[in-house]
Amino acid sequence: MNDDRLINSEYGIISREYPVNTILSGAESDDFRIYISNLAFSKMDAYLSSDVARELGGVLTGNLCRNDAGKDFIMIDDIIIAKYAESDLTKLTFTHKTWEYINNSLSSSDSAKSIIGWFHSHPGHKVFMSGYDVFIQENFFNLDHMVAYVFDPVNLERGFFFRKNKELIKTEGYYIYDKGSADSYGEVSDGSVKDKRGNTNSKLLYILLIFLIINFALSFFLMYRISEMNSKYIEIAMLEKKISDLITDVGNMKIQIAKTNEENPRLYTVREGENLESIALRFYNDRTGVNMLVKQNKLRDEFDIEAGRILEIPDR
User: Fold this and answer.
1) What are phi and psi of 100, to 5 degrees?
2) Under 8 Å CB-to-CB from 96, ≥6 apart: which residues?
3) Torsion of CA 270, 273, 278, 282, to 10 degrees
4) Are 134 and 170 in contact (CB under 8 A)?
5) Tens digits of per-residue pLDDT, 69-92?
6) What angle do CA 180, 182, 188 make, to 5 degrees?
7) Which residues contact 16 (CB under 8 A, 6 or more apart)?
């Protein structure tokens, strides 16, 4: 049973059991356990995400605890941002004015909280402890139980670092306990934590996916229509070829008919009272066809005909 009694005045160790109703981010480990309230976790990530052009940071407040089994762990229940700090994209410096603000904020608090670590951002630089970060840890947060939290708000990666065998290592996992609604401040799934921006990114990815599906469907439809139009063009080209072939065939047929007419002249039976001149006028509309009729029918002259005789009428 937790009675929150002070069992070590030097380090301010509180007698307390592990919190219940927790969410594990990462893998469970027998190493030093880190617990952080969902409210502190939300405030911290929201602040670190507010400016990705420079590093931001602050201190973690809470208690060093020890359970009945003699296991030490920390509980982080709030943060104090590092106001008046000097920073750029790769470095954060706590100034004298920053420490004055942090100490004033801590002393004005009614709860028996102490500084149990610090936090800062690495915008777009992944999660690790740089040489300068280690310097800050060793000079300002050098107690064994003090931790460091690093958050990359660009790549949405995060992690806690703690001392083990005098070295700073990244913890395999940490716990978020229910000081507030865990769903409001972060979800833990498959060992990772997603903040509110993660939900926004999911919505953006969903919208992008819908857009890509629509774009794919439209592209497929256009390709189908283009293929269909190409088929129509091919059909039209084939019809034009057939028409051209038919025109050619008709022309050849006309030539063939003309040749046939030349080879097989028309036959005409001379009627009573007709002569070659009247027959020439009948078939050629002028008298010039008389000589053709004489030559074609091998007559002696234009008068060498009589009624009932069959004449060959050639084309002019």
Assistant:
1) -65, -45
2) none
3) -50
4) no
5) 999 999 999 999 999 999 998 899
6) 160
7) 2, 4, 63, 65, 66, 67, 75
Contact (CB, 8 A) for 84 and 94: no
* Per-residue three-class SS string for 154-185: CCCEEEEEEEECCEEEECCEEEEECCCCHHHH
What letter would DSSP give residue 146? -
Q: What share of the chain is helix, strand, coil (3-state, %, to 5)?
A: 40, 25, 35
Length of the chain as a residue count? 316
Asked if residue 94 has pLDDT above 80, the reply is yes
**Cα 238 from Cα 241, distance rounded (Å):** 5
Q: The whole model's pTM is what?
A: 0.56
Dump pLDDT digits (tens) for 268-295.
899 998 998 898 888 888 888 888 888 9
Whole-number Å distance between alpha carbons of 85 and 140: 14
